[in-house]
Amino acid sequence: MSAAEETPGGEDVPWGEVTPEAARRLLVAAVEAFAERGYHATTTRDIAGRAGMSPAALYIHYKTKEELLHRISRIGHDRALEILRAAADGGGTAAERLADAVRSFVRWHAERHTTARVVQYELDALGPEHRAEIVELRRESDATVRRIIDEGVAAGEFDVPDVAGTTVAVLSLCIDVSRWFNTQGRRTPDEVGALYADLVLRMVGAQK
Amino acid sequence: MSAAEETPGGEDVPWGEVTPEAARRLLVAAVEAFAERGYHATTTRDIAGRAGMSPAALYIHYKTKEELLHRISRIGHDRALEILRAAADGGGTAAERLADAVRSFVRWHAERHTTARVVQYELDALGPEHRAEIVELRRESDATVRRIIDEGVAAGEFDVPDVAGTTVAVLSLCIDVSRWFNTQGRRTPDEVGALYADLVLRMVGAQK
DNA sequence: AACGAGGGTGAGCAAGCGCTTAGGGTCGCC
DNA sequence: GGCGACCCTAAGCGCTTGCTCACCCTCGTT
User: What's the gap in Å between the CA of B138 and the closest CA on chain A?
Assistant: First the structure.
């Protein structure tokens, strides 16, 4: 059920669900290129070159450059939503679930910040139907976080005057990690996740 | 000293400092186009067309398309920094100054979200020297916010375990407003500014 | 009336784009 | 060992891109 396959060792293999191997190599190359230069500034020749293939090889596995972006975006959004739902459906108080959601969501946006950058910031490059499909997934992410906050308010754990606005702010804060996070930087994904979980608990007025 | 000229009536005229008028029309057209489609997806023909001119007219006023982006980015960053500094240098407690900074900074990112989107998200499209110049302005924005938080901690107003990390988070939160804010949406720039000022005060543990 | 300067245009160049097509090498399978 | 299925490539088509260039129109000045 997971969006990422696992090795016998047990760790995640990103893009493990993309087969055959040549198609996966192209997709990984596209993620890197899109993250570095943006979708429109990336050429199909560049993608194919990074995957060690000729420009024409791309079109054996994908109909268009936009289909590549869509596949990346779809898989990434599925994974992000899965992470949020796992936290929301976990046990514990609303504060614990919210902290858990933010921690794992932020960690993903930091660790996979190349993927996340494409997923979160290249939405407008998708065609209309593909964009609509992705927008729907985002709505579900929003609803998942909002539900946790709602429950925290109902339980008296949180003090939140504006649930809808706070939900947008929380998600926006987490997503933007993929823009500024740098692997060379001082903080690890775990540290950023912990910091952000703390900040978000403060935003919702959870008592420590 | 203001980055925006004023009419006799007193209200801001954005891009008022750009002359002559034809150059300003082109720049405004470029801001709209870049915000809608992104820098790389925008053609010089599109920019000139929006300004009611032929493609060649653009090159009378700007050497390259990149110079247009740089002018936009430079003016926008100057304005953003000016807003932050005005709040930081204003009177009152650290909490009042921080709330003021967030409120006006967010309001600008919401009101001028087309400009802000270009300014904040098209940094990578700049050439190396131009990018370096803009990165330096961002460092100054960061330092300005950090100073307010530092002072609040020193005065015992705030409780912030990680000042550097919290500064990044606060700026990131504000900047990302330009990505999701929609003029058609339910909230006014003022409302978002007020909400975010409240959220940020909670993040730094300011007592109400 | 002549003129020079500066802001504008129509046409188009060289390069690069997304994508297609004809064909070739390498398999497993009978 | 013959053969079709599957990947992949070299070459290139039609189009768009950023940008240029030769020319022109509209001024204020003399």
Answer: 12
Please name the member of A41, A175, A199 whose beta carbon is closest to the beta carbon of B40.
A41
What is the average per-residue pLDDT within A185-206?
Answer: 97
The CA distances from residue A191 to A19, A107, A117, A205, in Å, are 34, 9, 19, 21
Cβ of residue B141 closer than 8 Å to a chain A Cβ:
no
Q: Tell me phi and psi for residue B148, to 5 degrees.
A: -60, -45
pLDDT in tens, B104-157: 999 999 999 999 999 999 999 999 999 999 999 999 999 999 999 999 999 999
Whether B59 sits with its Cβ under 7 A from any strand D atom: the answer reads: yes
Q: Do A155 and A94 touch, CB atoms closer than 8 A?
A: yes
According to the model, what pLDDT value does residue A41 have? 94
Nucleotides of D under 7 A from a protein CB: 7-12, 16-22
- Domain locations along chain B: 5-203
What's the alpha-carbon Rg for chain A, to the nearest Å?
18
Superfamily holding B5-203: Tetracycline Repressor, domain 2 (1.10.357.10)
Q: Which of A12-16, B108-112, B187-191 has the lowest mean pLDDT?
A: A12-16
The integer distance in angstroms from the CA atom of A20 to the C1' atom of D1 is 30
The separation, in Å, between residue B75 CA and nucleotide C14 C1' comes to: 34
CATH 2.60.120.10 fits A65-208, yes or no: no
